[in-house]
Amino acid sequence: MKTRAAVIREMQKPRPYATSQPLVIEDLDLEPPGEGEVLIKVRAAGLCHSDLSTINGDRPRQMPMVLGHEAAGEVVELGEGVRDLALGDHVIVVFVPSCGHCLPCMEGRPALCEPGARSNNAGTLTSGALRLSLDGAPIYHHVGVSAFSEYAVVSRNSLVKIDRSLPFEEAALFGCAVITGAGAVINTARVGPGATVAVVGLGGVGLMAMLAARVAGCRQIIAIDTLDDKLKLARQLGATDVVNATADDAIEAVRDMSGGGVEFAFEMASSVKALELAYKITRRGGTTVTASLPHPSHTVPIPATQLVAEERTLKGSYLGSCVPARDIPRFISLYQQGLLPVDRLMSERIALKDINAGFDRLAEGSTVRQILVP
């Protein structure tokens, strides 16, 4: 069958992307699902910084590739052996397929699934197959999803079935922004009631971390960004304090208002400079968590003695340390109860033809979450 999709063939094209067109809309050939795979009609996909990181070269991938990893859709065909889904089911796609059998999966850490990591790095499905092509030439899959397309073939292990009452545009956000941001707070850091928290970087993931801190009952939530519009939105969503990261005294301001630093600082800006800031505003005995992916060559200088003498913790969080089949329904329930207003993150809906301009807006920080409706 044919599917219309956004294909990237070359990274690091100059901005504005609306002019350089790093993503080209093409009619691709899509093979039917193989054993353990599912064909879905993509109903909504979010534009995320992880997609932008491939476009700008921070996150090198196999080329050419159909991008897009945060999505929701409808099941239209089942591959052999898939018996727990039915045609018409609504699903959220998760960007790390979990096999359920490797050591990390058996330990309850599917974000670290070893076969899933291998296939994601190779740009294939977990079977090793490539289902996309153009004139016989293969097109790679983005982390087993490739959601910037009308249709996608994905592993059954990449899907979480959801209730049909949840709109697709909102459901898509649970596949990345929600599980990454909220999961970092609830699963990775295990933040408890009464804690002091700071979030550095107020994109979709950062704002979700901030909202999760509210659900956790934190007494102080400090929102930090370089853009005043983002700080204004953070105030509206429940931040107790806001700080512009460009201020000369930003670190001192946070430490003063939190009585020597926060207990938990979350870095969500995909920037080493932001991570350094997050570490410096964390108090003695506190925890700094990063869920962003800057360029692989970037490193962070940390005083080694400080880690010991102040009993500091620096942690990474991937997929929000989530078990998707367990956590996505929980987060959806919190949203439906009005406790996790995911819909407030939605900026605008865009068409496939407008995707390059959408990434311009994302790169300049003038939007939170744009939803592509193929």
Key words describing this protein structure:
Rossmann fold, seven-stranded mixed sheet, alpha/beta, 2 domains, six-stranded parallel sheet, globular, 374 residues, 18 strands, Quinone Oxidoreductase, Chain A, domain 1
Provide structural commentary.
- It is a single chain.
- This protein folds into two domains: 2-177 and 321-372, Quinone Oxidoreductase, Chain A, domain 1 (Alpha-Beta Complex), CATH 3.90.180; 190-316, NAD(P)-binding Rossmann-like Domain (Rossmann fold, 3-Layer(aba) Sandwich), CATH 3.40.50.
- It has 374 residues and is an alpha/beta fold.
- It is built from twelve helices and 18 strands.
- The model has no long low-confidence stretch (mean pLDDT 96).
- The strands form three sheets. Strands 3, 5, 6, 9, 10, 17 and 18 form a seven-stranded mixed beta sheet that branches. A six-stranded parallel beta sheet has the order 13-12-11-14-15-16, with helices on both faces. A five-stranded mixed barrel has the order 1-2-7-8-4.
- A hairpin with a 2-residue loop joins strand 7 (132-134) and strand 8 (137-141).
